[in-house]
Design a protein that fits this description.
Blueprint lengths: L1 H6 L9 H6 L7 E2 L5 E2 L3 H10 L36 H17 L1 H6 L7 H13 L4
Antiparallel strand pairs: 1-2
């Protein structure tokens, strides 16, 4: 997608943040739910994650579109993992890896142009894991 957009005069496309940064693509600002025009950057994605409606009762499945944060990028998204409830032993190993990643992976995520989860959200997820017997 990024190559087509770069090669086609006057074109518009939507690619993930890392791809846009790696390809030095021009971007726009968008008006968010708070009525503020923001650009796509680490801070606006972090604000969307911080103010999004991540709810343990809904297995942390939010729609980050129009998160209410003052500086939130209005079309942010999240990546999820799914674990089969009946595979408790392998789930514990997977969760152990993700917990290690939460503790040690923020710098590498940023180096790869991905936005780490905010600490408050990581803590909510850890509570969810504990409640569900994964740690």
């Amino acid at each position: 997608m990024s190559n087509y957009v770069k090669q086609t005069p006057n074109s518009i496309g939507y690619v993930e943040f890392a791809c846009a940064k790696q390809n030095a693509m021009v971007h726009t600002k968008l008006k968010n739910k708070a009525g503020i025009f923001v650009g796509p950057n680490f801070e606006s994605f972090e604000d969307a994650a911080e103010t999004g409606t991540f709810d343990a009762k809904k297995d942390f499945y939010p729609m980050l579109t129009n998160a209410p944060g003052k500086n939130s990028w209005p079309i942010a998204g999240a990546t999820f993992i799914l674990l089969a409830k009946e595979k408790t032993e392998s789930n514990k190993k997977v969760v152990k890896f993700y917990d290690w990643s939460f503790q040690n992976g923020d710098a590498k995520a940023k180096e790869l142009i991905y936005v780490p989860l905010p600490k408050t959200l990581k803590d909510k997820i850890r509570g969810y894991w504990k409640t569900n017997g994964n740690i």
